[in-house]
């Protein structure tokens, strides 16, 4: 009876604590034999499969750097440099996020919040809090790694100056939003305890914080990915090779597409009453975005790896 259910829900909201409301919802679902929703497998699959792909392309990058050096005319050298060092730190955080996806799924991220033990809700939000911080630092690190790679390829002074500016902006974004995320609630523990309304918490507008972070991230995506395109257009290559090179660098805009898809699930972020269900999509899209960023950052190395075995496919100077 939908009318009766609505009345019970309204009564619980007006007279009961959050935990009592969740218990009421769970009891109602059980009595009415409603099927339990469960998308925990999507959360864990996104972490495991995406991390495996990102790790493979990262290893290809490192192997190609050591075993298959690029041509010096492109000024890409065999030695490991700062771009590789930076992406190592990014990969460490991404592996952490991906591993925690499994933990979150096992705790119940992807199920309705009223079906979970209260202890699991606290644990999920605490791990989610850590994941946010990893996400906010890993993404700018990947983009900084890409910019450092540009500095090795292109020697135009104006381009190098513009690249350093973009590096600084990415670093500032990462630091600023990391601090905002760390101190989103006062005291800090309220980031994972505020949901029960039993604590004296003072938190930022988490929804506005998420949207602002996403907007700045997409702007930096466009600047980072668009930087090399004018330089590539000016390269002295035939049309086919120029097209292949520009296509390779333009594939990075796939990350921006993932960012746009992630925006669609930010609507309920920070305002949800069903945290463990509504946060599942934000979680796995954020994880996919990190994995896609690594793949895009490693595309030049993948091209070098392919060229080693199929030189005609990629061309000797592409």
UniProtKB/TrEMBL annotation:
Domain of life of the source: Eukaryota
Localization annotation: Membrane
Record domain Rhodopsin: where: 74-308
Query: Which organism encodes this protein?
Result: Pseudocercospora fijiensis (strain CIRAD86)
Q: Which GO terms describe its cellular component?
A: membrane
What membrane topology term does the record carry? Multi-pass membrane protein
What InterPro entries does this protein map onto? Rhodopsin_dom_fungi, SAT4-like
Asked whether the UniProt record includes Transmembrane helix among its keywords, one would answer: yes
Q: Where are the transmembrane segments?
A: 42-60, 81-105, 163-183, 244-263, 283-302
Going by the UniProt record, its keywords in alphabetical order are: Membrane, Transmembrane, Transmembrane helix
Q: Member of which family?
A: Belongs to the SAT4 family.
Q: What is this protein called?
A: Rhodopsin domain-containing protein
């Amino acid at each position: 009876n939908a009318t009766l259910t609505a009345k019970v829900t309204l009564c619980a909201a007006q007279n009961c604590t959050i935990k009592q409301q969740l218990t009421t919802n769970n009891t109602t679902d059980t009595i009415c034999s409603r099927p339990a929703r469960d998308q925990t497998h999507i959360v864990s699959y996104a972490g495991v499969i995406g991390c495996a792909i990102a790790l493979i392309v990262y290893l290809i990058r490192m192997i190609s750097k050591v075993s298959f050096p690029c041509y010096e005319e492109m000024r890409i050298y065999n030695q490991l440099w700062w771009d590789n060092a930076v992406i190592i730190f990014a990969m460490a955080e991404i592996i952490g996020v991906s591993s925690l996806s499994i933990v979150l799924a096992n705790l119940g991220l992807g199920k309705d919040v009223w079906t979970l033990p209260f202890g699991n809700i606290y644990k999920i939000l605490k791990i989610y809090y850590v994941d946010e911080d990893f996400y906010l630092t890993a993404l700018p690190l990947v983009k900084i790694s890409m910019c450092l790679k540009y500095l090795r390829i292109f020697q135009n002074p104006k381009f190098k100056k513009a690249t350093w500016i973009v590096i600084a902006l990415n670093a500032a974004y990462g630091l600023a939003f990391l601090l905002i995320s760390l101190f989103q609630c006062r005291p800090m523990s309220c980031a994972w305890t505020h949901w029960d309304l039993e604590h004296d918490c003072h938190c930022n507008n988490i929804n506005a914080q998420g949207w602002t972070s996403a907007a700045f991230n997409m702007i930096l995506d466009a600047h980072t990915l668009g930087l090399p395109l004018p330089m590539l257009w000016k390269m002295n290559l035939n049309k086919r090779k120029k097209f292949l090179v520009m296509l390779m660098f333009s594939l990075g805009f796939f990350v921006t597409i993932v960012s746009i898809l992630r925006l669609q699930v930010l609507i309920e972020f920070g305002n949800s009453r069903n945290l463990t269900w509504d946060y599942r999509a934000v979680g796995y899209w954020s994880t996919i975005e990190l994995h896609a960023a690594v793949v895009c950052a490693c595309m030049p190395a993948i091209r070098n790896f392919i060229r080693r075995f199929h030189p005609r496919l990629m061309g000797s100077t592409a």
